[in-house]
Amino acid sequence: MYDLFISYPRADVALVRPLVEELGRLGLSAWVDEREIGDADAITRSIVEGLGQARMLVAWYSRAYTRSRPCQWELTAAYLAAQHEGGDLSRRILVINPEPGADHIQPVELRDRLYLEGGAGTADAAADLARRIAKRLDRAATTWIGDIRPLQAPSWLAGQRRIGSNRFVGRVPDLWSVHSGLTAAAVTVVTGAGAGGDLVQVQGMGGIGKSMLAEEYALRFGAAYPAGIVWLSAARTGAVVPDGCETEAEGGRHLFDLARRFGLPVQGMEPAAVAAQVSRHLEALGKPYLWIVDDLPSDANADLLAHWTAPSTNGRTLVTTRGTRLDGCGKIHRLDVLPQEDAVRLLTSRQPPRDEAERRMAAEIVTELGRHALAVDVAGAALRVISYADFLKDLRTPSADALALAAELAGELPNGHHPGIAVTLRQSIGRLRPEGVLVLQLASLLAPDPIPTRYIVDVLAEHAGDETAGRRAALLGTQAAEAEALLDRLGPEEVMVHILTARTMRRHAAAPEALRAAAVRVMNRVMRDAADIRKHAALEPLIEHVRLLTESVEDAETAALLTSLDRYESEREVYSLAGTIWRRELEASQSLHGDEHPNTLTSMNNLAATLWNQGDLAGARELQEEVLAVRRRVFGGEHPDTLTAMNNLASTLWSQGDLAGARELQEQVLTVRRRALGEERPDTLTSMNNLAETLRSQGDLAGARELQEEVLAVSRRVLGDEHPNTLTSMNNLASTLWSQGDLAGARVLEKQVLAVRRRVLGEEHPEALTSMNNLARTLLKQGDSSGARVLFEQALPIAQRKLGNDHPITRALRNGLDFVTSLPR
Fold first, then answer.
1. Phi, psi at residue 491, to the nearest 5°?
2. Pairing of strands 228-233, 115-117
3. How far is it, in rounded angstroms, from Cα 129 to Cα 124?
């Protein structure tokens, strides 16, 4: 354990070392780390091992301290700990200011009386300063900083874990401004009811460093959000937005994805109910969390922002956007270009100037680039292979292609500097080896989201026709693009390309059609699991890329990928998106194959099913009647596809209340299937079940019971007593017996179903809870209110915990328990 943690920039080690020696002579123990550390994990380890075991942080706050990323992290950690302890910074932080003024010290709360003036350049000065530090330490807390709150790296509740960038420079006032806005006692948020917590918007042009600032803030200030961090990307990536449903499509899908990641049961719920589930889950964390929304569309309005804001009151929302239309919402922090000193530092970090002439040229280069963060970073990478003089000359003599790109990007870049930025991007791309160009061309086909490296390997292997060649191309290509700062590595398994780089590729080095075809074919293989919701977690990192690849459908492979995307949305029961995608898929199939092709009919049928799920029964019926007419004409009345079309239409007629029409179709289907397939085939049993339900709805309970008993007998014989289909048949028959007044018979079946489901699925499975509700309802009807109460009381807490209060099963159980409770004892 240590009295002091000495936080200082390595450039000042010669000044700090005498001070440390004098502190030792006074009997004070100090943690001093002379290693060069830079990445987030190493900085965190230093903070945990050193600062966490010290009573006070001593910050040697020279101007170099402002530029030191590790120092700023250390200071921030101590500051947040002191705030959590009660806010008295002097108990935990002591600033030594060796500079003549204090304007460089951030945050401003550390200025004035919270710092000691003076340096330690001489032995006497060091001794004097050590004595003054010792006096301050007498008033410091006696416990360790790590005891206040753990100093570990932040936890990531959902979304991509960000790892930060060693190329992040400066922005100290910006970071503290963001923190102040997020933690202010009151911030006016006019994004509508339910928007929780404080809100800060970081606004700025493309490539200026908004996302990197948000990432650095999350890593550096994560301790202020003990419940964790959520990172969401709101970029529009070609996703289809249903007419009139923009807020649901753009602001609702992410909540469904979060609910799935949190393990919340939201299948089939309306967007408002999903939002309520996520809100309750986050509220139950009980502590603040940070909700980051990266790249909100520049044309977003307040309604859309409301859908992206943290859904519970313990959330703090940080938004990055190029837009300026939301100036009335929360605190606005407009991010400017890099300060001159920081821009030069970024430019020269890889290739330091060799002399004064190159230092002057470095300053001129960043001026030509408008101190634009992305351009300066890319230029810095270029200076490893091109001289300062040649680079500056190229900036001042742009080619026709560079000027054309500059004109396209003019509205997104610093005024007057876009030609230089265009030159920088174009030349860096031009220096790439062929594999690097391929990687960036592939990225230009995809969304501005993280790209799994495994997918890059598979696509380049498909494109080359050889797995080994593809792996080699992916490795060399990502390395080459990364060396030019045109690609960022998010970790061992993901990379990301900035949208400005992708736009440059699309404009001046468009991907060949063969590469796009390979990207679609590989994605089709991946999306084979789209209909299995258990596999959706593995698919999520690629879904936005699928949306962009299917933005235009001009071939059968892309149409198939669009179909998989719709199956993905349909399986998640996000029907508003699914319906729009199916419409596009239908139009594409009609264009590619014609109106009567099997693929077109399948698309019509899928769209009809989605319309049915949305409640548009008339629209579903119209499509199903069209499909049935074509299949009857093309295949005949007894073809399996025709019978399927008859069944689908019958279901819609039933839902519309046309029971006679539904019964007529179902009887025709059952007759054909009995003759063609026999009594024991699954399709025949399904037809019998369907017809039985219609008979039951018409009041023909005897006819329904006869069919259901036949189905159950076959299911038990063929599938066994514990097969899910057998249990469903038992449930169906129990319902009919219940309606006939045979409560004893219904009770026997329901007890059997419940026993199997409890044993096979577990007490907390939704189907087991449904069986408990069914049996309790029957017991209640028989007058056994105490037995019903026991089941309701067992099931309701489980349903509330697992499914939420708004789930239909929970509501049914709660209503049952309320009724039993109201009965006289």
1. 160, -175
2. unpaired
3. 9
**pLDDT tens digits along 647-668:** 888 888 888 888 998 899 888 8
Residues of 482-497 as b/e, b for ≥16 C-beta within 10 angstroms?
bbbbbbbbbeeebbbb
Dig out the tokens for 462 from the structure: 């498909």
pLDDT in tens, 486-500: 898 877 788 988 878
CATH code: domain 616-740 is 1.25.40.10
* CB 398 within 8 Å of CB 422: yes
- Asked whether the predicted pLDDT for residue 197 surpasses 50, the reply is no
Q: What is the pLDDT of residue 240?
A: 34
What pLDDT was estimated at residue 248?
Answer: 40
In the predicted structure, residue 241 carries a pLDDT above the cut 50: no
Which helix (H) or strand (E) segment holds residue 99: the answer is none
Packing angle between helix 246-261 and helix 575-593, nearest 10 degrees? 110
The string of DSSP letters for 330-354 reads: SEEEE--PPPHHHHHHHHTSSS--S
Burial class (CB in 10 A: 0-12, 13-18, 19+), 772: buried
Side-chain half-sphere CA neighbours of 347 within 13 A: 32
Cα(323)–Cα(326) distance, rounded to whole angstroms? 7
User: Angle 452-261-577 (CA atoms, 0-180°, nearest 5)?
Assistant: 80
What CA–CA distances, in Å, run from 318 to 161, 252, 409, 627? Answer: 16, 18, 26, 49
pLDDT at 117: 76
Q: Please tell me if the domain spanning 616-740 has the same topology as the one spanning 761-825.
A: yes
Residue range 15-28, pLDDT digits in tens: 899 999 999 999 99
Whether omega before 398 lies within 30 degrees of 0, making that bond cis, reads no
Pick the CATH number of 761-825 from 1.10.1200, 1.25.40, 1.25.10, 2.30.320: 1.25.40
- Compute how many other C-beta atoms are within 10 angstroms of the C-beta atom of residue 361: 18
Domain boundaries along the sequence of the chain: 2-148, 156-334, 340-430, 434-523, 616-740, 761-825
Closest to 545 measured CA to CA, from 465, 483, 477, 458: 458
Cα distances from 259 to residues 254, 279, 539, 568, 796, in angstroms, run: 9, 10, 16, 16, 21
Q: Closest Cα partner for 677 from 643, 713, 727?
A: 643
> 343 and 313 in contact (C-beta within 8 Å)?
no
Query: Is 225:284 a contact under the CB 8 Å cutoff?
Result: no
DSSP state, 290?
E
Q: Which residue has the tokens 């009381």?
A: 793
In this prediction, residue 578 carries a pLDDT of 52
Structure tokens at 586: 């239908």
Q: What angle do CA 226, 228, 232 make, to 5 degrees?
A: 150
Q: What is the pTM of this model?
A: 0.70
CA 17 to mean position of chain CA atoms: 46
How far apart CA 458 and CA 435 sit, in angstroms, is 14
Q: Which residue did the predictor score with more confidence, 356 or 109?
A: 356
Helix/strand/coil (H/E/C) assignment for every residue in 28-63: CCEECCCCCCCCHHHHHHHHHHCHHHEEEEEEECCH
CATH class of the 156-334 domain in this structure? alpha beta
The CATH architecture of the domain made up of 2-148 is: 3-Layer(aba) Sandwich (3.40)
Percent of the chain scoring above 90 in pLDDT: 32
d(CA 811, CA 800): 9
Cα separation values, 755 from 751, 752, 759, 774, Å: 6, 5, 6, 13
